[in-house]
Amino acid sequence: MGETTEALLQARGIFKNFGHVRALRGCDFDVYPGEVVAMIGDNGAGKSTLVKILAGVQPPDEGEILFEGRPVTLSDPTAAQRLGIETVYQDLALAPDLDPAANLFLGRELVKPGILGRLGFLDTATMHEKTRTAFKNLGAGVQSETDSVASMSGGQRQSIAVSRAATWANRLVIMDEPTAALGVVQSKAVIELIKRVRDQGIAIVIISHNMPEVLEVSDRVEVLRLGKRVARFRTAETDMDALVGAMTGALVQEDA
Amino acid sequence: MAELTEQEQAVADREAEAESDSSRKGWKQALTDSTAFIFLALLGMLIAFTVLRPEAFASVNNLRNIAIAASILLVLSIGQTFVITTAGIDISVGSMLVFSGVVASMVMAEVNGGQGWTAVFVGTAAAVLAGAFWGLVNGLLITKAQLPPLIVTLGTFGGVLGFAKVLTGGINLRTVPDELVNTLGIGRLFGVIPWIVILALLITTIAGIVMRFTRFGRYTIAIGSSEEAARRVGINVDRHLLKVYLVSGVLSGIAGMMSLARFTNTTIQGHDTDNLQSIAAVVIGGTSLFGGIATMFGTLVGVFIPTTLQNGFVILRIQPFWQEVAVGAVLIIAVYVDQLKRRARDRL
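^ inputs. structure came back:
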């Protein structure tokens, strides 16, 4: 379970309250370099809250985050991005009126060389070219880089969001239920996309309610329940019953 | 055998359905490309008035009058386009125009007794700074105090005009250098094209390039399209919105100088409806009131529609008040089309 290698990202004893709601109660989490780890748990287990903390969207009330063993403060999403961590949110966070290339480079636009660049003129041609290449390398099924995202299907939007994360992340991509809103065929395409991102050596945290999907794509599984990590599994050594048991509290690991 | 024909029938039905679907789509596409549509409407108006009164309407003199009448509103509407593209609104443009003109006139009165090019340059700087100041106030209240743009600029709409009246005691100032009046006010390039029109078109062109080709324009559209998406990728949304309201203020300041040049006084009473006229022009032109879709060319067309109608009705001796009715109707249709477009899109 990576005892020999150092964890890429670790959460230690994270607490987070929203008013009277105790979303996280001393939660731990580990991601090792280059692995796909599934974060599972029933509704209200604290998955989304933990993701927001790992992505730098919200600060924890208590506890620490270690990146390659060093404590880090993720005060905002750009702090996480500087460490090479990108997040694909459930709502995708795309600008629907812009095209896929503009979304892929949003906030990181390339400008033309020289004086025009100083004035902020965009190098649209290069951005389109690089977007085409990114989509091709990842096998993302996006037909056009120039139509607005609003005119595209849910699967294509998801592919754009995943491709954007994979383009900029060099260490870790966090995905919050990437297939929850998709049909069977589109889900399969996104799963294939996730595998290709993994093949580039980028670690992936995937949150999912879909157990067959978790078993198919992940190397490890970490289970949250009531704001704490309650179990850890190697995917190859577990099955659906064990996962569901851990999620519902029927199965408890003492050393999790 | 019967089964086969049934299947064939089903296939034929599906094909027919697909065909009518795609033809309907093409027709809808043309209708919902609102800028092209509104441009055709403007052309239609120009042709209609020309056919009805060729010698009076289509004369160089009259077309020049239309362009002059539109130029000040055009500059205000360009700033308004940036603001509306971020899904904001600026009700205070007319008041910032008046305030800038008042400050400029007062400052110019102190330079060479209000005459000469030095006075013009100092006055222009004062007008731009005055507009920038109020634009900044709007922007800070919207981003730092997190108040809705409608309320903030409604407040400054009244307040800034109030300040202008306090400064002048409510009486129009008339200190405007002859050098300004003879150039920007009534001067023409080659004796044909008024400088005031050239300035307005130059600003429109620059704004169009900025919106379409630069990072500033890209962020403006992105924030209007999804503020949350812009924030999550690390765009400094507050700083950008501050700049956008600043641009609106600066352009109102320039418009204030144009107004001084053209009317040779501070026209304190003349700009109460500039805000609504500029918003109407922007929306009629095809910029989305809900943000994320911008067209400077559309704004240009949107400014010319009311002006052309007004001019044409006067020439045709139709009561010019009908212009107000017509513009109101066009505005409502424009927003309706915008909403249809969004609904069609969100269904996908």
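Residues 10-32 of chain B have pLDDT under 50 and may be disordered. The radius of gyration of chain B is 23 Å.
thumbs up if we can close this ticket
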